[in-house]
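Researcher: Here's the sequence for the chain we discussed earlier.
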Amino acid sequence: QVHLVESGGGLVQPGESLTLSCTASGFPFIHYGMSWFRQAPGKQLELVATIRADGTTSYNTKLVRGRFTIGRDNTKNLVTLQLNSLQPADTAMYLCAQASDLQQRGQGTQVTVSA
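Model: Thanks. This is the structure I predict for it:
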């Protein structure tokens, strides 16, 4: 059974940073691409970034604007998202998911950016 657990969210001020983590279990993580999504209240789910099984990455450049970095540690079944220069518009629930199957996703971790 696929199990994804996000952590690392919180309340920060504009300009600050956070590192989100997602721990995976129940599937051969090393062979799977992983993605981070986010959903703000009243808005649709947005793809933030993807890291493929081979380690290559892609970003929603309009959203990220060079501020976020996705990474993975296959020894720990871990995917991370480094968030820098956070702004109030980045306030959202951040979720990780298998890149090929959005139905396989975690419950999310809340990021709130406010002065």
